[in-house]
Design goal:
single chain; Beta-Lactamase; Helix Hairpins; 4 domains; five-stranded antiparallel sheet; 13 helices
C-alpha cells in the first residue's frame, strides 16, 4: 500500500521533494503501514467512510465479510452502493445516518445484510465521516440463550420445589429470592423479603441462624440440620431440616437454603411412640388388672372387719387411711382398664351438645370448688354415634385438666360446633400453656407434670377418642391451651 499526497487536487512531483520532505513522507508511510497492520489484525470488522459515504478504509475482516479480494476494490465507492440491502427502513442505515448527523456514537445488534448471523455494531464519528465496527455474536447469543434456558429451568424447579428454598447474597446477606413454598408457608410476600437482610426477616432463632451461616462459610455446606422456623405472625411453628450450600450465581457468591418441613413427620413419630406405649400398657392392663383387683378386694374386706373390732378403735385412723389408699389404687386400675382398645363400648345416636348440657351442674360445681370459672359456647351440632358414658369421662378429664392448668380465678371454656363434615368438642383454658419440652409426651401413659397425678387421664382420653374413630389435637402457648376432639360425621 502506498501513500499518495494531493495538493489542490493535483499530484505533486516526488522529484521536487527535498530530502527532508522525502524522509518525512517515508516515516509517515511506515507509520501508516504499522497502523494499517494493527487495524487489520483486530478481530472486529472495520469500515471507514467520509461525509459523502465514500469508503476510505476497509480492514481485512470487513473485506472478507464483503467478499472483496482487496482494499482497492472497495476504496472510493459509496457504502450504500456496496450494501444495496441497507434500505432506509433498516436499523443499520438509520443508525449510520444518525451518527453522521448527530456525531454521537451508537451501539446496536442487528442481522447482517450480507451474510447470515447476528452482529454487534458500533458506529463512531471520526473527522468528517464515521467508522463502523461490527463482529459476529452468534456464539454469544447461543450461549446467552442456553444460559437463559438454564435459568428458566432453575427458576421452574426452584419455585416448584415442595421444600422452602431461598437464595441469599454473601456480599451483604440479603435475600435474592425465595420460592413459592417459602412464601406460602411463612406468610410473607416476595416484596417483603427480597432485598432485606436476613436479620430483618425473623424466620428462625437469631443465634441458631448465625451458627448455621458460620458453618456454611467454613465448610461450604450443611445437610439436614434440625431447627425451628416461625411464620410471619409467629403462630405457626415448623420443625425443619435445613440444608445449605455456598455457590456462585452470575459470579456473585451466594448461599442456597433448602428447608424441609418435618412438622407432620415429627407429630406422626410422636403419635407412633405414644401408641406403642399405649399398646404396651393395654396388654399389661388386660393381663394383670383383674389379678391385682382380686387381692385388693380381699385385703380391703379384712381391713373393714378389723376396723370394726372394738380393740382396734385406737388404730381407726390407720385403717381408714389404708382403705382410702386401696380405693385410690382401685380407681387407678379402673382408669388403667379404660386404656384398652378392646374395651366394650355401647354407642348409639346421641348429641354432643346435649351430653355437655346434662353435665353442666357437675362441671359448674367442680369449677366453684376449685375457685375457677366455667364458660360454655354450645352450638347446635348433628347427632353422632357416641358412648355417652365415655364422652362424659372424656369431658370430665379434659375440664379438670384445664382447672389444674390455671390459677385461682382461671377460666375454662367448653365449646361445641361444626366444621365441614366434622363435629368439634373444644376445651380451652387460659393457663400458662404446656412447656415445649414435654409437648411430644402428652398422652403417654404414666407421664404427668402434676405432683399427685397418675399420668393416665389424657391417655384415657386418647383411648376414648380412638374408640370413637375421632382425632384429638391441641394448640398451646403462653395464653393457654385448647384441646380439640374432632368427630367425623361419616
Amino acid at each position: 500500500m502506498s501513500l499518495i499526497i494531493h495538493d489542490k487536487g493535483n499530484k505533486l512531483n516526488p522529484d521536487s521533494f527535498t530530502p527532508q520532505i522525502c524522509s518525512n513522507l517515508v516515516d509517515l508511510q511506515n507509520k501508516y503501514n504499522v497502523m494499517s497492520s494493527i487495524i487489520n489484525s483486530i478481530p472486529d470488522n472495520l469500515i471507514a467512510v467520509d461525509q459523502n459515504w465514500r469508503i476510505i478504509f476497509v480492514n481485512s475482516g470487513a473485506r472478507r465479510h464483503l467478499s472483496a479480494t482487496g482494499q482497492q476494490e472497495l476504496l472510493g465507492k459509496n457504502l450504500w452502493e456496496i450494501l444495496p440491502q441497507a434500505t432506509e427502513d433498516t436499523l443499520i442505515y438509520q443508525s449510520c445516518q444518525k451518527v453522521m448527523k448527530d456525531r454521537t456514537p451508537l451501539r446496536f445488534e442487528a442481522v447482517s445484510l450480507v451474510k447470515p448471523g447476528w452482529f454487534d455494531f458500533r458506529v463512531y464519528p471520526c473527522l468528517n465521516g464515521i467508522f463502523i465496527l461490527f463482529s459476529n455474536i452468534d456464539a454469544i447469543k447461543e450461549a446467552k440463550a442456553k444460559l437463559q434456558e438454564s435459568r428458566k429451568l432453575f427458576l421452574t424447579t426452584f419455585n416448584a420445589s415442595p421444600y422452602m428454598k431461598s437464595i441469599i447474597s454473601l456480599k451483604d446477606f440479603t435475600y435474592i429470592d425465595v420460592n413459592d413454598t417459602w412464601v406460602n408457608k411463612l406468610g410473607y410476600t416476595r416484596q417483603e423479603v427480597v432485598g432485606k437482610h436476613v436479620c430483618q426477616i425473623a424466620v428462625m432463632d437469631l443465634k441458631h441462624g448465625r451458627k448455621l451461616f458460620r458453618t456454611v462459610l467454613r465448610h461450604g455446606r450443611i445437610y439436614n440440620e434440625e431447627g425451628i422456623f416461625y411464620s410471619k405472625n409467629k403462630k405457626d411453628i415448623y420443625q425443619v431440616l435445613i440444608s445449605a450450600v455456598k455457590t456462585k450465581l452470575d459470579n456473585e457468591k451466594i448461599i442456597v437454603l433448602s428447608i424441609n418441613d418435618i412438622t407432620e413427620l415429627r407429630k406422626y413419630q410422636a403419635e407412633v411412640k405414644r401408641l406403642d406405649s399405649l399398646n404396651l400398657v393395654e396388654e399389661m392392663a388386660s393381663g394383670i388388672s383383674h389379678e391385682i383387683r382380686n387381692p385388693i378386694t380381699t385385703v380391703r374386706g379384712f381391713l373393714q372387719i378389723l376396723r370394726g373390732k372394738e380393740e382396734n378403735t385406737k388404730y381407726l385412723d390407720y385403717y381408714n387411711l389404708m382403705i382410702e389408699e386401696l380405693d385410690r389404687v382401685n380407681s387407678i386400675i379402673t382408669e388403667y382398664l379404660s386404656l384398652t382398645k378392646n374395651k366394650k363400648t355401647e354407642r348409639s345416636l346421641a348429641n354432643l351438645k346435649d351430653i355437655v348440657e346434662n353435665m353442666l351442674p357437675l362441671l359448674e360445681s367442680d369449677a366453684v370448688g376449685n375457685d375457677r370459672c366455667l364458660e360454655v359456647d354450645l352450638r347446635q351440632v348433628p347427632d353422632l354415634l357416641l358412648d355417652p358414658k365415655e364422652i362424659r369421662q372424656l369431658l370430665l378429664n379434659l375440664i379438670r385438666n384445664g382447672f389444674e392448668a390455671t390459677t385461682d380465678g382461671g377460666v375454662v371454656k367448653v365449646m361445641t360446633y361444626q366444621e365441614g363434615n366434622q363435629v368439634i368438642l373444644a376445651v380451652a383454658d387460659n393457663g400458662c400453656g404446656i412447656p415445649e419440652e414435654v409437648r411430644d409426651k402428652i398422652g403417654t401413659p404414666f407421664f404427668t407434670t402434676k405432683e399427685t397425678g397418675t399420668g393416665l387421664g389424657l391417655s384415657v382420653c386418647y383411648s376414648i377418642v380412638d374408640r370413637h374413630n375421632a382425632q384429638m389435637t391441641f394448640d398451646t402457648g403462653p395464653d393457654g391451651t385448647t384441646f380439640y376432639v374432632r368427630f367425623n360425621l361419616n
